[in-house]
Design goal:
405 residues, alpha+beta, Metal Binding Protein, Guanine Nucleotide Exchange Factor, Chain A, Peptide Methionine Sulfoxide Reductase, Chain A, 27% helix, binds zinc ion
């Protein structure tokens, strides 16, 4: 990154001269035109962009402030193949069916071939038949930017960090977004899922807005290693359940995953069939000196409707069942006592159908399911289904919320 900063300083001086000689206006559209580097005032800090990046554990984190990658066309040419330069820096499009990633199905992530920013996950890749790699959503909101073509007919997609042109986005995609991100293979670089730690970005180590909390929770985690407990609950779609518990004081970490089935089928496509025995679940690591299992049970029973059998609203199937996966007799008795108490108090108009089962195993879900509500706050499902559940918990138990919440 140091070299990029150096380039920025050089470009700032060059750019200043350029601006003086050429009044601001549209860049020329000659075949080899590339976006003119943004002139920067001498001494100014390099511009940054808020994006998600991989950390050393191979986990997508953010948003973090990452310096924009700004280079001259000559330097981009040195770094990129002629084909990649044409697409990324010159708004070109590769020939249909010519790219290497058109119909790849490998599990992993696709990063910007210019600057390495994570852009798309194979989880959202689909066969479009167009001859270009197609995805229905970016890996995370904010890591792909949209720019309407000058004539307003199409929407280009760009890398927000290096400004590289990636392809276009259309409104004829599949569910759940209805969008089709049409990519050029040469603009992408694939990394298998188990190698994402190799994509560790320095920006992930730098302090950023949410770092103090994360650090605190890390420190807490090591300090409390011997004094933390875990609880596993299933309450419908784990996106909302995770967010509902994440806001509770004493909760150190919430992992979305699958419980109640075998390891071999503990993946989203298989679990979605409803035949694997898994329930979408969350594993909560908490500090029992700050929040009790009994209080977590209270949150559990307002974060979903425990009277719905094998469904939550429109999410139907046993994978959305209501279940408490107990780790020991103490949790089992607490769960049974809580159900009895709520039943006797007629808190719900219908009988509670929550299953109380021993936790045999818990398998963490795919990375893109973690922090889903936080990362996709604008999605229609999150707005209409998940956030109301999170809000319901906030209203019902304000005293249990983390102070910063
Ligand atoms: Zn990029």
């Amino acid at each position: 990154m140091k070299s990029a900063i150096f380039f920025c300083l050089v470009l700032a001086l060059v750019g200043l001269g350029y601006v003086l000689a050429n009044p601001p206006g549209k860049t020329s559209s000659t075949p080899n035109a590339v976006a003119a580097p943004q002139p920067m005032a001498p001494g100014a800090k390099p511009a940054t962009v808020a994006v998600h990046v991989f950390n050393r554990e191979g986990k997508l984190v953010g948003p973090v402030d990452s310096p924009k990658v700004e280079m001259s066309a000559a330097d981009w040419r040195k770094q990129l193949s002629p084909e990649a330069f044409d697409v990324l820096r010159n708004q070109g499009t590769e020939r249909a069916f010519s790219g290497t990633y058109v119909d790849t199905k490998d599990d992993g992530v696709y990063c910007c071939a210019g600057c390495g920013l994570p852009l798309f996950s194979s989880d959202a890749k689909f066969h479009s038949g167009t001859g270009w790699p197609s995805f229905y959503q970016p890996i995370v909101k904010g890591n792909v930017t949209e720019v309407v073509d000058p004539d307003g007919s199409r929407t280009e997609i760009h890398c927000p960090r290096c400004g590289g042109h990636l392809g276009h986005v259309f409104n004829d995609g599949p569910k759940p977004t209805g969008l089709r991100y049409c990519l050029d293979s040469v603009a992408l670089k694939f990394t298998p899922r188990d190698k994402t730690a190799s994509l560790a970005d320095p920006a992930a180590d730098k302090p950023h807005e949410s770092a103090p909390a994360a650090k605190q929770s890390d420190a807490k985690q090591s300090k409390m290693k011997k004094t933390t407990s875990t609880a596993v609950f299933a309450a419908g779609c784990f996106w909302a359940t995770e967010a509902a518990f994440d806001q509770i004081k004493g909760v150190i970490h919430v992992e979305s995953g699958y419980s109640g089935g075998a390891k071999e089928t503990a993946n989203y496509p298989a679990v979605c069939t409803g035949t694997t025995g898994h329930a979408e679940s969350v594993q909560i690591t908490y500090d029992p000196s700050q929040v009790s299992y009994d209080q977590l049970l209270d949150v559990f029973f307002v974060a979903h409707d425990p009277t719905e059998l094998d469904r939550q609203g429109n999410d139907t199937g046993p994978q959305y069942r209501s279940a408490i996966f107990y780790a020991n007799d103490e949790q089992k008795h607490a769960a049974e006592a809580k159900i009895k108490e709520l039943t006797q108090a007629h808190v719900f108009p219908d009988p509670i159908v929550t299953a109380v089962e021993p936790v045999k195993s818990f398998f963490a879900a795919e990375g893109y399911h973690q922090n889903y509500v936080h990362n996709h706050p604008d999605e229609a499902y999150i707005q209409s289904v998940s956030i109301p559940k999170v809000e319901h918990v906030r209203q019902k138990y304000p005293e249990l919320l983390k102070k910063s919440e």
